[in-house]
Amino acid sequence: MSNYKDFMKSGHPPTLWAAFLYFDFSFAIWVLNGSMGPFISQAFHLSPAQIGFMVSVPTLAGACMRFPLGVLAQYIGRKNAATFEMSAIVVALLYGYFFVHTYHDVLAMGVLLGIAGASFGVALSLGSGWFPKKYKGLAMGIAGAGNSGTALAALLAPRLAMHVGWQHVYGFAALMMLLPLGVMVLFAKEPPDIEHQSLREHLSCLFEADGWYFNLIYVITFGGFLGLATFLPSFYFSQFHVSKVEAGSLTVLATLTGSLTRVLGGWFADRIGGITTLSVVFLIAIAALFGLMATPSLVTTTLLFMLCFAALGAGNGATFQLVPLRWPLTTAVAGGMIGEIGALGGGILPNVLGLSKQHTGSYQAGWICYAALAVVILIMMRIVARSWTRTWVGAGGRAIASSIQSPEYAIGDEGYFAVD
Question: How far apart are CA 121 and CA 123, in angstroms?
Answer without folding.
Answer: 6
